[in-house]
Automatic annotation (TrEMBL):
GO terms for cellular component: plasma membrane. Gene3D superfamilies: Regulator of K+ conductance, C-terminal domain (3.30.70.1450). Pfam families: CitMHS, TrkA_C. GO terms for molecular function: monoatomic cation transmembrane transporter activity. It comes from the Bacteria. The chain crosses the membrane at residues 7-25, 31-49, 61-80, 100-124, 145-166, 178-200, 411-444, 456-473, 494-514, 576-599. Residues 212-296, 309-393 form the RCK C-terminal domain. GO terms for biological process: potassium ion transport. It is found in: Membrane. This is Potassium transporter TrkA. It comes from Lysobacter arseniciresistens ZS79.
Length: 610
């Protein structure tokens, strides 16, 4: 059977590719399921063997993505992302446009020396909470943030593997290699254009609330509790303002007890002393963190342990926090916590109290319970099983707060710095550097192993691992080389600027299927050959190709960062096409124009003279 220039295997591959793109665009199935169907089709048709089909799970992008999820989880668990979010919140005010103008340059700067997926994963929960707190649409913020992370990789040579591959190709041809800041002028121009575009075209962005975690409805603020500055505390003699800054903006002082007396003469600049009791309102995360701080403890727990002889409720490792709602008609209504003698009656401690309106006595023990009060209980799970059946409680639910290991924040930052340094200096291969960073984050207990596994978005991991074999199949069937040869014959006699635009466009389309590295490796030699046939330096041709592979913001599968925001922003496939196509057209022209200016002495500004 005559298939023209195509072989039977190439035709089968193109059919599978077309079917896969249909599934991606139509969203009839989840993206990770579609990726697995494509992978199985490639194996069943004999285009790939089982080893090649499963190679994506051990590929560099898949390893890096899994590692950055864990590292980002460590940064969140130690409170680092919370501090960054507070800074962005203060700088952004309540305006959507101002939030975009502040967030995008900051994200681009962070992505210039690290992996853009890590930056995207780190910023995702920050912007989600920021949008919710200010009543903004999260989908209006996440896409600009992801775009800024992608554009930020163009600020230095080391932030995207495609640029390192381009540098290596140029050196092999005998041309001068690229310096670490050779592409920085292009990167700056792209970041500025990206910010301006997103500010002017905000109406194109979808306006959706996005998805929050299933436990978001449990994350209540204004929990009343009491803190004890323990003996030998690291906070002793340090001013209250330092503690408030460390615990974040969801921490509010109600009163200050010293030697059992309420002191109204003490303020933010006053030093803390061991034995001081602070009457506070704290967020769920702060409340969960306080008992783990070696310098602070929840005063109700400390007082109970000091007065209990038999060791109940047990060692801290055996205990947990839960929430209990005071039921209508409960025997506890109208009685204070002190009167109930709750800890001895139920062998559990009321460590915190949430009440709508927060109208209650300053001391937790003096608070008289009302119907609907939410008690934060600390004790053994076996005791909670008994409490769950008590008619005085409406229900027991898990406590939604996550402890922040703030003392390990410097360690987490150091691990991140070493990880980036190891990758940038090529002391270790990039995937191994990030894997080492992820292991170090867990080994140093910046995040516990269970939470580390939960941080990995299996959907994204499977999607990436399933799409990578597409690139292998394209190369192995010769489809890529066939398309590349056709390109060479078409554009060989075109003007330089037009050829650069074509190379960018080809790379931009191909990177939607292949990784940016594979796209650069495939099209780079063609770019060099075209430059040599035109008798010009190959550097702008190779760089423009690598740029097309890195910054084409066309579909959610073109960049792994886009996959991270796909669910939380409730984006559809078409949202990226609608927003990304006009922007990518502008970016393409800027990249072609500036590479010609930098390496071929072309004009920086267009000439309109006749």
């Amino acid at each position: 059977m005559d298939l023209g220039p195509f072989t039977l295997q190439q035709v089968m591959f193109l059919l599978i590719l077309a079917g896969g793109l249909y599934l991606f665009i139509s969203e009839r199935l989840r993206i990770d399921v579609s990726a697995m169907l494509i992978l199985l089709a490639l194996v069943v048709t004999g285009i790939l063997d089982e080893g090649q089909a499963l190679s994506g799970f051990a590929s560099e992008p898949a390893i890096i993505v899994a590692a950055v999820f864990i590292i980002s989880g460590g940064l969140a668990a130690t409170g680092i992302t919370e501090h960054i979010g507070q800074w962005i919140g203060r700088a952004s005010g309540r305006s959507e446009s101002r939030a975009i103008a502040v967030t995008m340059p900051a994200v681009a700067a962070m992505a210039s020396f690290t992996h853009h997926v890590m930056v995207t994963a780190m910023m995702l929960p920050i912007l989600t909470r920021f949008a919710k707190a200010r009543g903004l649409s999260v989908s209006r913020l996440l896409m600009p943030m992801s775009l800024a992370a992608s554009l930020g990789t163009c600020l230095t040579l080391v932030s995207a593997p495609a640029f390192l591959l381009a540098d290596n190709m140029l050196e092999r041809t005998g041309a001068e290699g690229l310096g670490i800041f050779s592409i920085t002028p292009i990167g700056i121009a792209l970041v500025v254009i990206g910010v301006v575009y997103m500010l002017l075209a905000r109406w194109v962005l979808p306006k959706r609330t996005g998805k929050s975690g299933d436990d978001e409805y449990l994350r209540l603020d204004r929990y009343r509790t009491e803190l004890l500055v323990t003996e030998g505390s690291r906070w002793s003699t340090r001013p209250l303002a330092e503690l408030q800054k460390s615990l974040g903006d969801k921490f509010r002082m109600i009163g200050w007890l010293r030697d059992g007396r309420l002191r109204r003469d003490l303020g933010p600049t006053s030093p803390l002393i061991s034995g001081d009791v602070l009457l506070v309102e704290a967020s769920a995360d702060a409340l969960a963190s306080l008992h783990d701080d070696t310098g602070l403890d929840l005063y109700p727990i400390t007082r109970f342990n000091a007065t209990t002889r038999d060791g109940e409720p047990g060692e801290d490792g055996d205990c947990e926090l839960v929430q209990a709602v005071v039921a209508p008609g409960s025997e506890f209504i109208g009685r204070s916590i002190r009167e109930l003698d709750f800890s001895h009656q139920f062998k559990a401690v009321i460590a915190g109290l949430w009440r709508r309106g927060a109208d209650m006595a300053p001391r937790l023990a003096d608070a008289r319970l009302r119907e609907g009060d939410l008690l934060v209980l600390w004790g053994r799970p076996s005791r909670f099983a008994e409490l769950a059946t008590h008619h005085g409680f409406l229900m027991l639910v898990p406590f939604a707060g996550e402890a922040k290991r703030r003392q390990r924040a410097p360690l987490a930052l150091a691990i991140l710095g070493v990880t980036v340094l190891a990758a940038v200096t090529e002391w270790l291969p990039v995937p191994l550097a990030f894997l080492l960073g992820a292991v170090a984050i867990v080994a140093t207990r910046c995040v516990d192993i269970g939470q580390a596994y939960r941080e990995i978005d299996v959907r994204v991991f499977v999607m990436i691992a399933g799409v990578i074999p597409l690139g292998i199949a394209m190369e192995q069937t010769g489809t890529a080389q066939l398309l590349a040869s056709g390109l060479r014959h078409v554009v060989a006699d075109w003007p330089v600027l037009a050829v650069l635009l074509v190379l960018f466009t080809m790379a931009a389309l191909l990177t939607q299927i292949l990784s940016d590295s594979a796209t650069t490796v495939l099209l780079g030699p063609i770019a060099i050959e075209l430059a040599q046939s035109l008798g010009v330096a190959p550097t702008p041709f190779v760089v423009c190709t690598a740029l097309g592979a890195v910054v084409a913001f066309l579909t959610p599968i073109g960049h792994h960062g886009n996959l991270l925001i796909l669910g939380p922003g409730q984006y559809r496939f078409g949202d990226f096409v609608r927003v990304g196509v006009p922007l990518t057209v502008v970016i393409a022209f800027v990249c072609a124009w500036m590479t010609r200016w930098l390496w071929l002495d072309g004009p920086l500004w267009p000439s309109f003279a006749g």
